[in-house]
């Protein structure tokens, strides 16, 4: 049976990128389907599909057309999947009545239909996003731009125009916001309360807001600004405006500011604005050194610490780390490395902060300051080389052996922290928060690798995320050989989310995964287990 590639073009048909990624995952998961993608027909997207082997020739399509491409193991499986995809595309235009079927096709039409609206969420391909955002701004709408691949020149232009109009321009590449209790894009259902958040990080906002909500606190607003807002070129335009908005908001009593380390000039301006505020601040610049902050501000070095300082409560583990480490010594290989496979970029950065502070050597494809960048040959799915010794677990004889990493962390090499949401892993594929299958092969390889002592993973739930990431992970573990490294996980989300954090945690526990109450706790548990194993071996 030979592989087939099938394509379908829907003319002048638009679905936002989150909906397209979710549908791509659904189709790719069908029996006999090897790969599938649904994308708007921009030149960049067509290049992605062509490189992935999902185009049969060059489709006659323009940027406002939708292209479906799938590669299947045979004609019958491919045709069946194609029909499912086409029916799914027709679902939004179902027969639930004229009012339900009608959808505005332009910003202008949407404003006429909802004149009371004050925010537009822009989620169109990057080449079109700036124009749509500008239309929204000029109709008096604040904008959350989920779209990425927008030039920094367009970002600066849009944000300056928004500032002149007194409007917030959140993004581009703004993945998370919660405005007045309403979650937008990837976000969580949270308890309302007096703590505001401004963040240049989607998963950073999600982790801090969820921890606060689950600890009994509450969020007034969580304003995402886009990952580049605190760069020198942009100058923190939206960050400063968001701070002003929360300063004027009677429902906000304290503010948390989350970002990777900004440019020094930008940091000085932001800290100066904090000094002028009447409200207390918690500042978490992930990976930054000690900051010179005014009296009304405290620095947090991790997301967990930011949540604890903001809500005034300590978030602790509900088990004894040393006791748990002792229980797992038999499965932990002395001298092995910690392998972190993360769907959240800021969660990966937080893990690096904690591992680096412990004195361990580490590498990452998205390194924080002071961490070495992962080389291409270090990210392949392979086993670490080491001579077989008496008592070693069975090692597959067919394994492809590559040179072990040089480093001080043991024969397993330096710890590795992989951000699976980075472009190199999501090019042409859904983000791992939507499709956790992006992590599956690397997880299986880590479990089989004798150089890995502990595997760290994160699960991010909430609006827009996979409906059961814990169930997916449990299935992968059930289908993996036993005796591999222990898996330590955290769940970013709340009991109010559709997936229910407590239910997700229970599924992980049933799968023998060690579940920590936060990503930072998971890292600390991993460090404790590895250190105890090393001490027990006399290393």
Distance between the termini: 53 Å
**What number is the mean pLDDT?**
87
Please identify which CATH superfamily of the largest domain we are dealing with: Succinyl-CoA synthetase domains
Largest sheet: 7 strands, parallel
Quaternary structure classification: single chain
Fraction of residues in H or I helices: 25-40%
Question: Top keywords for this entry?
Answer:
5-stranded parallel beta sheet; Gyrase A, domain 2; alpha/beta; 7-stranded parallel beta sheet; 3 domains; Rossmann fold; 539 residues; 22 strands; 36% helix; 18 helices
Tell me about this structure:
- The protein folds into 3 domains: 4-93, GAD-like domain (Gyrase A, domain 2), CATH 3.30.1360; 107-311, Rossmann fold, CATH 3.40.50.261; 321-536, Succinyl-CoA synthetase domains (Rossmann fold, 3-Layer(aba) Sandwich), CATH 3.40.50.
- A 7-stranded parallel β-sheet has the order 16-15-19-14-20-21-22, with helices on both faces.
- By secondary structure, the protein is an alpha/beta fold.
- 47% of the residues are buried.
- The chain is built from 18 helices and 22 strands.
- It has helices at residues 17-28, 43-51, 75-90, 98-101, 107-113, 126-137, 152-165, 202-214, 237-248, 264-275, 303-311, 321-328, 345-357, 423-426, 440-448, 469-478, 501-510, 519-536, and strands at 4-10, 33-40, 66-72, 119-122, 142-145, 169-170, 176-179, 182-185, 192-199, 219-224, 254-259, 281-285, 297-299, 337-342, 362-364, 372-373, 383-384, 401-402, 415-419, 452-460, 487-492, 514-516.
- Helix 8 (202-214) crosses helix 11 (303-311) and helix 13 runs parallel beside helix 18 (519-536).
